[in-house]
């Protein structure tokens, strides 16, 4: 069985955009509205040195904010059971949110390898500006733009060498 790499994070950080880019095809729906991907999506990534199964945990469409948060926690718990590597995605243009901190606390307690993926960073200049904000979360990190491709080869290398 191929190793499982699971993307988690709050809605709208760019999980489906990353999933699509790593799969090089439009399998996941990408939307402006948070939580539009209903179920987890699976795809096989053929990497340079390793193949793996990539999972986009999406998010349920729910009316209540509180329920939505509970749903995200549930997805992270599931990821903690099944993943060989967790990609914890955050929005570099938004800074660290309270929900990011709660997810980080859950993930630190998991025994799984976790890599922080700071998305929506589109170049060295932005990277230098936002890097410090995210160190406090306490994970190895990559700063990328899933939409524009910045630093994607570095992330791919890091994923494959963690498997
Ligand atoms: P998800 O809810 O975490 O799956 O997030 P999506 O992949 O659906 O993306 C949410 C929004 O963020 C969409 O409007 C994307 O186009 C946008 N987005 C994703 N990656 C980037 C990026 O690298 N830079 C910018 N500026 N926007 C991005
Ligand atoms: Mg999505």
Automatic annotation (TrEMBL):
Q: Which residues bind GTP 1?
A: 9-16, 56-60, 119-122
Q: Which domain of life is it from?
A: Bacteria
> Which function does this protein serve?
GTPase that plays an essential role in the late steps of ribosome biogenesis.
How it assembles, according to the record, is:
Associates with the 50S ribosomal subunit.
- State the similarity comment: Belongs to the TRAFAC class TrmE-Era-EngA-EngB-Septin-like GTPase superfamily. EngA (Der) GTPase family.
Name by which UniProt lists this protein? GTPase Der
Q: Which residues of the full protein are shown?
A: 8 to 170 of 442
């Amino acid at each position: 069985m191929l190793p499982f790499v699971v993307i988690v994070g709050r809605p709208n950080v760019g999980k489906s955009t990353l999933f699509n880019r790593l799969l090089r095809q439009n399998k996941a729906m990408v939307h402006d509205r948070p939580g539009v991907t209903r179920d987890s999506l699976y795809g096989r990534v053929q990497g340079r040195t390793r193949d793996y199964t990539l999972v986009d945990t999406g998010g349920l469409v729910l009316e209540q904010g509180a329920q939505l948060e509970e749903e995200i926690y549930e997805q992270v718990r599931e990821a903690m059971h099944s993943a060989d590597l967790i990609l914890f995605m955050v929005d570099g243009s938004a800074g660290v949110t309270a929900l990011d901190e709660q997810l980080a606390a859950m993930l630190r307690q998991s025994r799984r390898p976790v890599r922080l993926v700071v998305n929506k960073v589109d170049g060295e200049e932005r990277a230098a500006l936002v890097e410090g904000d995210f160190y406090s979360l306490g994970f190895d990190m990559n700063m990328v733009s899933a939409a524009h491709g910045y630093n994607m080869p570095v992330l791919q290398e890091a994923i494959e060498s963690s498997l």
